[in-house]
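User: Let's play a game. I give you a shape written as tokens, and you guess the letters that built it. Ready? Here's round one.
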């Protein structure tokens, strides 16, 4: 599976952005998909994950209620809708996939990664 994230940009605090992850490979629909982010000088951290069917989702506490993860297996795409953005959401956002059957929040569980897209939230 090859992944490509897009949709990042500059937005004011309180604004919204929608990130997309385009996947190639026929097996994407059988993979869970996650979003991670990495702020300057910090470790890459988990943001959200969605199961292969879309039936299960899980979010980091820091984004719960503000971000929504979704996927469209017919189009081999995944999305992260980000609302009520805060300056602390500023980071490079990565989409990733894993064949593991359970919802995974650890980056070491993901074998496939996109190149990242930068989100900057100004105060």
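Assistant: Ready! My guess for every position:
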């Amino acid at each position: 599976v090859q992944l490509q994230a897009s949709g990042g940009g500059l937005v004011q605090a309180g604004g919204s952005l929608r990130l997309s992850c385009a996947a190639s490979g026929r097996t994407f629909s059988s993979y869970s998909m996650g979003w991670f982010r990495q702020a300057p000088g910090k470790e890459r951290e988990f943001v959200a994950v969605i199961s292969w069917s879309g039936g299960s989702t899980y979010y980091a506490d820091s984004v719960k209620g503000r971000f929504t993860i979704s996927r469209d297996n017919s189009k081999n795409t995944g999305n992260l809708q980000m609302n009520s953005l805060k300056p602390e959401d500023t980071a490079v956002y990565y989409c990733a996939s894993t064949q593991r059957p359970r919802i995974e929040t650890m980056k070491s569980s993901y074998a496939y990664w996109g190149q990242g897209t930068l989100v900057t939230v100004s105060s």
